[in-house]
Sequence to fold (463 residues):
Amino acid sequence: MQLTFHGAARTVTGSCHLVEARGQRILIDCGMVQGGRAVEEENAGPFGFDPASIDTVLLTHAHLDHCGRLPLLVKRGFRGRIIATAATRDLARIVMLDAAHLQEEEARRATRRAQRHGKERPEVQPLYSVIDALDAMDRFEGSVAYREAKRLGDGLRATFFDAGHILGSASILLEEETPTGSASVLFSGDIGGPGHPLLADAAPPPRADAVVMETTYGDRLHRPYKASLDEFHDAIHGTFARGGNVIIPTFALERAQEILFVLRDGVATRRLQASTQVFLDSPMAISATDVFRRHPECYGSTLAALFARGEDPFAVPGLHFTRETSESMAINRIVGGAIIMAGSGMCTGGRVRHHLKHNLYRPDAGIIFVGFAAQGTLARKIIDGARSVDLFGEEIPVRARIHTINGFSAHADQAELLAWRHAIAGVRTTFLVHGEEKAMAAFAPMVGNGRVEMPTQHQTFKV
Ligand code: ZN
Fold:
């Protein structure tokens, strides 16, 4: 089996690994590079292989940095099949269509800019279109259940195992049988920590010859979940006591549903008044919540028990789903006592920027960050203590109370990553990917048994 790393090599985004075995060419994930305009230009560059030569894509989960370049792969000639769990397929549809829509808008804006400056050929093409995203959807072949081996060809099979990261997320074991022996590689995908309120814990296979694993938090430990939950409710109470609104910049997949679940539980346990107005102001998060409701096979025990009793885990009393722009704008008239969840999580776009414009300058408001904020994003600037920020060309002073709560992470921390890895026996080589170099360097010596590799972009290994 031959393994080449075409993405997420010594960085956190753009997952894309090529396996060549038994005459087949298999891609594990085909993700987008994220993190500001300069690095995102890499997405338009070559893949490092011919898309038409790929037979199968195995998709670990639906985050953009794992599935975001699939439409481009199809646009550039990929005609094979894509295999994923049913929940991943449904979520990937939302994610890819949203990404295509944003890129079409961006291209239209760039075209208008070029026209205004009198460029001879002003037409700017998007990286891919909504049609390309729909074409990518057509390449999905059925769906796989966890632990059900899928035959990919003679002597080659793939098995998906729950990764406990987001709905439908999987680690994928690829096994090759030849007349002279066998080999297996496990691709972790992104791994969630145990005790997630919505999902089951990660359950990797007992053995693998090689493991390719993410190391996003390879150098850090999270705060315990319960402490984070207390901090979250304290932030809400404090804001309401001052008379302001709570703004929660929210990632549409998974984090939005987790916060809804926490709020619902808060009302049930009387930590939160049932009369509180809650807004989920994100069409994408609303669609993702519908997908969540359709896939009880992915639930953890708490959520499964609620579902079995016929209860809706996301039905917060006083919850409004606002899909329409006019509804979203109406929220701006509320001056206090509301919880407003809106995307994007890092405040780089989306409706949350409007809510920040109307609340950031108010000392009574509270902004609660519940997810990762990359360097250079508006969320990071506010978290790092900016006195004022630019929103829609206006300098808005930051007077609201700012809270950052890191215990809601969908990624396992250092100790949890190690426990996951050590649950797998027989590993001769561990490849570290999907992490900053600093995180990998801290994690590598802890792996212990076997060889540890930190591949560079386009580097090839035999397993
Ligand atoms: Zn992920």
Observations:
- The first helix runs from residue 37 to 40.
- The chain has a mean pLDDT of 94.
- The radius of gyration is 22 Å.
- The chain has two domains: 2-219+411-462, 225-408.
